[in-house]
Amino acid sequence: MNDNCLLVGGRGYGGCAILWRSSFSCTVEAVVVVNNRVHIVLINIHGTRLLLYCVYMSCDTRYDSDNIDINNSVFNDIFDSNLFNNVDHILNGGDFNTDLSRAQSAHTVSRNQMCAREFMKYAQNLSRFSTDYTYASKSYFSRSCIDHFVLSEGLCDSVESYSILHDGDNLSDSVTHNTLDVSVIDKLLWDKATTSQLLKYQNNLDQLLCKCDIPDHVLQCDDVFCNVHPHFIQEYHENIVKACLQASSCIPSSKSGVHTKGRPGWTEFVSKNKEKAVFWHKLWKDNGSPH
Question: Whole-model pTM above 0.85?
Answer without folding.
Answer: no
